């Protein structure tokens, strides 16, 4: 009997110990993302409380007020808040908040819809699987803890399968054509399918006179799609460069909301006076814009300096394209797709045709917080990205060499003004 009591006592102690360890661990994680009780105030509706939480977060951490000229956004706070007075449902709040956030003119700052939540959760789970220690797992668990139902999972997978991400076709016997709808994640089945198609088509087309890369409507995703695969394949062992980039943060407090912080931690440093001087001397438009330089000195505390990388020649010349290159862009080219447009321009790879891009191809994944009441996820730009260009516009966007307006563009290549322009240019080249 005594022996049984001792065994039970030991078991009880083990259970208590394990329980306490989980409680303490949960407490620690909760503390990291603790919400101030004021955002649960009964003096306001849950929507007004979430509005306050979102605005307080942006006021403290948002990095692009100066670049986008949107400081009046904060000044309009009271007027915006009045718009939430008569809302009844979470969906109404979601729509209203995204309309308000739209005034920042920043597609990286919004409340996430279910498809975006699905995509991001998928991306970070994959990243953590591929490269452990590079993703803020506590944050991802906190944000995306609720499992997406198997029904929703099935619907999205079927929807993706129904739309090809990479389209290849010959425009004529001399011109090859690639359309990339999104920068999907390497390591996924969809990407592997794209990569096999890309290898087959580039090998078959490498000696054509021209290759069109169509990024129109590509809102971004994972920059590795072009940086690590497409461009190294079509350039072969040819040298390429990346323009130096500077990524600035207003405070190191925001890093706990940055899903990539563990990966970036070793690259981030506190800004010194010598760093400010270096930026001023090496970013041409900052020499002319004293007001912006003063704002940077006053409001930004941490920096990542990205010197870019060189071509490792991993693909050899097996897929190297030997003819002329053309890049098609429009206002839908954004984020990682903009990064691809930057690369094309920086390396003078060929002719860019279409419309001014949507921009913003500098930096990492946006920071994210969960609103305390509706539980919507607010993502926001917590970085100011700068490049060594003559103007702020060139640092943010890509201006085409030949402008073809939206009204003259088409999803059908044979009817498309940009493709017709390539045919015309190649015809002139052949006539020389």
Automatic annotation (TrEMBL):
Q: Which GO terms describe its molecular function?
A: endopeptidase activity; serine-type peptidase activity
- What superkingdom does the record give? Bacteria
Give the UniProt entry's GO cellular component terms: outer membrane-bounded periplasmic space
Q: What InterPro entries is this protein classified in?
A: ClpP/crotonase-like_dom_sf, EF_Hand_1_Ca_BS, Tail-specific_protease
Q: Where is the Tail specific protease domain?
A: 174-403
Question: What's one GO BP annotation on this UniProt entry?
Answer: signal transduction
This protein is called Peptidase, S41 family
């Amino acid at each position: 009997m005594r022996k049984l009591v001792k065994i039970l006592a030991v078991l009880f102690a083990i259970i208590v110990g394990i329980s306490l360890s989980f409680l303490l661990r949960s407490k620690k994680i909760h503390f990291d993302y603790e919400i101030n009780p004021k955002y649960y105030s009964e003096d306001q509706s849950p929507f007004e409380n979430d509005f306050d939480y979102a605005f307080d977060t942006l006021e403290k951490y948002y990095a692009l007020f100066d670049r986008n000229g949107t400081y009046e956004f904060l000044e309009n706070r009271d007027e915006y808040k009045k718009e939430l007075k008569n809302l009844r449902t979470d969906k109404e709040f979601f729509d209203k908040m995204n309309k308000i956030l739209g005034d920042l003119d920043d597609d990286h700052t919004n409340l996430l819809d279910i498809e975006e939540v699905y995509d991001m959760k998928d991306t970070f789970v994959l990243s953590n699987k591929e490269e452990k220690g590079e993703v803020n797992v506590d944050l991802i668990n906190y944000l995306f803890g609720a499992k997406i139902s198997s029904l929703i999972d099935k619907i999205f997978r079927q929807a993706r399968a129904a739309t090809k991400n990479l389209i290849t076709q010959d425009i004529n016997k001399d011109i090859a054509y690639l359309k990339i709808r999104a920068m999907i994640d390497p390591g996924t089945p969809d990407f592997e399918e794209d990569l096999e198609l890309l290898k087959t088509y580039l090998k078959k087309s490498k000696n054509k006179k021209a290759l069109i890369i169509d990024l129109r409507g590509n809102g971004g995703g994972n920059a590795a799609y072009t940086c690590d695969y497409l461009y190294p394949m079509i350039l072969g062992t040819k040298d390429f460069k990346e323009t130096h980039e500077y990524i600035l943060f207003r405070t190191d407090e925001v890093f706990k909301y940055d899903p990539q912080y563990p990966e970036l931690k070793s690259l981030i440093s506190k800004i010194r006076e010598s760093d400010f001087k270096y930026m001023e001397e090496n970013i041409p438009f900052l020499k002319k814009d004293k007001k912006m330089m003063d704002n940077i000195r006053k409001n930004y505390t941490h920096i990542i300096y990205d010197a870019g990388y060189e071509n490792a020649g991993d693909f050899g010349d097996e897929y190297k394209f030997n003819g002329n290159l053309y890049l098609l862009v429009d206002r839908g080219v954004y984020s990682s797709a903009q990064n691809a447009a930057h690369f094309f321009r920086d390396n003078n790879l060929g002719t860019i045709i279409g419309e001014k891009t949507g921009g913003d191809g500098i930096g990492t994944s946006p920071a994210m917080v969960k609103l305390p009441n509706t539980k919507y996820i607010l993502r926001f730009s917590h970085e100011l990205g700068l490049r060594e260009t003559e103007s702020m516009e060139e640092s943010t966007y890509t201006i085409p060499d030949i402008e073809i307006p939206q009204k003259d563009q088409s999803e059908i290549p044979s009817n498309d003004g940009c493709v017709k322009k390539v045919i015309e240019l190649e015809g002139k080249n052949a006539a020389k």
